[in-house]
Amino acid sequence: MSSKKWYEYIVSVEPENDGAGNPPPASDAASEIAKIAAQMQSPAPVAFSPPPAAAKFSSAAATVMAGNMATFDDIYGAADIKAPQHGYSILKVSDMLNSEHIRAMPAEVKKGSIMVALDAAGVKIQEVIQDAIRRDQALDAFERVRLKSVDDLEARKAEENRKVQADLDKYVAEQKARLQANLDEVSKQRESFIAWRKLKQVEEQRIADCVSYFVTDNPISTVANPQPAVKPGS
């Protein structure tokens, strides 16, 4: 394989200067590149490989669920996608297309430049496209695995929340019942006290009536003759 830089092939296919020593117009160079690209064999249909099994991504998905973001390299690695020996993956070609050497060129010129560089490296465009397909399938498969992980988590947490809500509702109901029982007990005791106090008043009046026959100032407290409260220590 030649050690020449891939982008140098853009220059190597340009026609020589005209007789007057003037460089050819840029459009001629682009036309020459496009001509060479057209002469190359047209890409044959790409055979679609089966998408990666979801099981390949279980570890990567678990990593994400643990709070660590999976990189694209992690995803490609889980799908056993490695850079080809010749080095021309779809990612490499993407970098070439965005290279400062051809980034500003028209689309046809960029395409022709890549085709020339691949031809010089003995790489078929079908190999690059197949690499692109495998990476796209890996990304789609990982997306499905991630989505299923999120859906499964949502289902588990929804069930957990349902149980928590049921326990909460039960606890709230129990505490409300306890509050009401406390109020009911106080109300019952107060009603009982009021009823007893009425009996007490009747009893005190009976005693006061009896004592009144023998004293001037009746010492017995009644509703009509309340006695001052005794201070502590008196």
Q: What structural category arises from helix and sheet content?
A: mainly alpha
Number of alpha- plus pi-helical segments: 7
Order of helices and strands: HHHHHHH
* Uncertain runs: 11-16
Q: Quick one: biggest sheet?
A: none
What is the terminal separation in angstroms? 119 Å
Mean pLDDT: 79
Strand content: under 5%
Task: Supply the number of structural domains.
Answer: 2
The rough form would be described as: rod-shaped
Find the count of extended strands (DSSP E, 2+ residues). 0
Radius of gyration: 47 Å
Helix-residue proportion: 55-70%
Q: Can you offer a commentary on this structure?
A:
Helix content is 61%, strand content 0%. It has helices at 8-12, 26-39, 58-65, 72-78, 90-97, 107-120, 125-211. Helix 2 (26-39) packs across helix 6 and helix 3 (58-65) packs across helix 7 (125-211). The longest helix has 87 residues, at 125-211. 14% of the residues are buried. The model is unreliable at 11-16 (pLDDT under 50).
Brief descriptors of the model:
single chain; 234 residues; 0% strand
Write a brief structural summary.
This protein is mainly alpha-helical and 234 residues long.
Fold blueprint:
Elements: H1 8-12, H2 26-39, H3 58-65, H4 72-78, H5 90-97, H6 107-120, H7 125-211
